[in-house]
Amino acid sequence: MGHDTNYHMTTEEFRKHGYAAVDWVAGYLERLEEFPVLSTVAAGDVRAQLPPSPPESGEPFDAVLADVERVILPGITHWQSPNFFAFFPSNSSGPSILGDLVSAGLGVQGMLWATSPACTELEAHILDWLVELLALPDRFRSTTAGGGVIQDSASSATLCALIAARERATGGATNREGVRRRLTVYASTQGHSHIEKAVRIAGFGSDNFRLVAVDDALAMLPDALDDAVAADLSSGHTPTAAVATVGTTSTMAMDPLRAIGEVCRRHGMWLHVDAAMAGTAAVAPELRGFHEGLELADSYAFNPHKWMFTNFDCDAFFVADREALVSALTILPEYLHNAATESGAVTDYRDWQIPLGRRFRALKLWFVIRHYGAEGLRHHVRRHVELARRFASWVRDDDRFELLEPQHLNLVCIRHRDGEEATRRVLEHVNASGAYLTHTKIPDQTLIRMSIGGTWTELPHVERAWRLITENA
Q1: What is the CATH number of domain 11-34+39-76?
Q2: How far is CA 6 from each of CA 54, 88, 105, 107, rounded to the nearest angstrom?
Q3: Whether the bond into 444 is cis, omega within 30 of 0
Q4: Kind of pairing, strands 401-403 and 411-416?
């Protein structure tokens, strides 16, 4: 094999194989449209092609790369396909892939400022860039009492927000007998399932999680939130936090932030805003309306790994008061003591998250923002929104289908007027024909979700999806 006697890949071998790996990825991106989006393998097919035991001797890199093509690729659902319209996008892009490669090469463990100052300082700076790009409230800038941090996902951001809310509400006394059992959390019936998961993990318990009614547009009713809080107060509970969603997973519904924020302010509750998908749209000034009232929020999160061409994982999480977050999460063992931390002049992001360790995620986001610029990001967001509006116009003009109104941003939800069976038949036909869409239920009607946000998606792909929809209508 030509391995060095220490078995490591030499830098010359790495350079040679690295070129081959990048060439394979570039070739894959060029072939994306050739693949059906959904993998066609049966359960167990991939494992059946793998040897039962690890190799005793190292294998040539060429053989490994060949098996990526032979074994792995058939078992891939192609999230980067321009015909992927399911869930929400989990986008990648050339600069993001290269940023991740450089991050992997550096191999940074960024738990403390001292363990790689550039990892921390670039992250703080890029999160401030995002405040400017999205016109977020200044209280989320690192130059104030607040600041931003990159989490792995919106799930972790919500969990951190709820832990900070819990500690603020109790003054850190959540371990006292009975205290935690009285704390309540609120979200709309359309909020993501990760909210209840965070409620459980943070120790509130599902019994203290309140689902608040929504209006005809599927947005949280502030009066219903106020009523729920009042009922809990009268029964001896402590209303602690509310999670508002701008851009729900089912239908992209938008909770009214100002009215919800005013309820939270009156009752001393923490307001966390989950904008996982929709947040990126705020790069375009004319699309920022859903952020109205955001200055009342204590924390906010959105996912560049959904719509900002930055590969998973990358969630931007902001707090208005970093002390509330840090005091809830910091534990400093002796082996992490260092002069920089003890000086108080630096940020240690390990205190802003659940795990201790952290990757250099800011690097890929930096690459993306520098490559596209604000202009490029706005261009692609506007293009996707326009494609969704055009798709919605086709639905309105076809008397076989019904469109869920209002239609927000880049998600369009439709149903066949003949009912459940017809709607599901259309969905199955599309997904068997090389594209991929998913469904939801509102409240008991099945809707087909057309999510338009892929890096490589253009008008012909949307036109093809509509053709597949109508073929079996």
Answers
A1: 1.20.1340.10
A2: 19, 45, 20, 20
A3: no
A4: antiparallel
Confidence of residue 212 (pLDDT cuts 50, 70, 90): very high
From 421, 430, 413, select the one nearest 470 (Cα to Cα): 430
Phi, psi of 319 (to 5 degrees): -130, 150
Of 24, 96, 88, 33, which is closest to residue 456 (Cα–Cα)? 33
- Provide the Cα torsion 375, 377, 378, 379; round to 10°: 80
Q: What percent of the chain has pLDDT over 90?
A: 83
Tokens representing residue 354 in the block: 């659940």
Q: Which two tokens stand for residue 25?
A: 């990825």
164-188 as b/e: b if 16+ CB within 10 A:
bbbbbbbeeebeeeeebebbbbbbb
Report phi then psi at 467, rounded to 5. Answer: -60, -40
Decide the pairing of beta strands 299-302 and 438-441: unpaired
In the chain, which segments carry CATH 3.90.1150.10? Answer: 374-471
Strand, helix or coil at 300?
A: strand
**Cβ atoms of 109 and 59 closer than 8 Å:** no
Tell me which fold the domain 374-471 belongs to.
Aspartate Aminotransferase, domain 1 (3.90.1150)
Whether the Cβ atoms of residue 91 and residue 311 lie closer than 8 Å to each other: yes
| pTM given for the model | 0.93
Angle 302-305-310 from CA coordinates, rounded to 5° = 125
Chain region(s) in the chain for CATH 1.20.1340.10:
11-34+39-76
Predicted pLDDT of residue 114: 76
List, by residue range, all CATH 3.40.640.10 domains of the chain: 100-366
* Among the listed residues 183, 132, 189, the one whose alpha carbon sits nearest the alpha carbon of residue 162: 183
Contact between residue 416 and residue 447 where contact means Cβ atoms under 8 Å apart: no
Q: What is the dihedral of CA 401, 404, 405, 409, to 10 degrees?
A: -110
- Quickly count: other Cβ atoms within 10 Å of residue 295's Cβ: 15
Fold of 100-366: Aspartate Aminotransferase; domain 2 (3.40.640)
pLDDT tens for residues 251-291? 999 999 999 999 999 999 999 999 999 999 999 999 999 99
Strand partners, 209: 185
Task: Please state the separation of Cα 213 from the chain's center in Å.
Answer: 24
Residue 407 has pLDDT above 70, yes or no: yes
Token reading at 79: 């999230």
Measure Cα distances from 359 to 106, 123, 286, 307 in Å: 10, 11, 34, 21
Mean pLDDT of 37-56: 93
Measured between alpha carbons, how far is 126 from 103 in angstroms, rounded to an integer? Answer: 15
Would you call 23 helix, strand, or coil by DSSP? Answer: helix
In 295-445 the beta strands, taken as DSSP E runs, fall at: 299-302, 315-319, 401-403, 411-416, 438-441
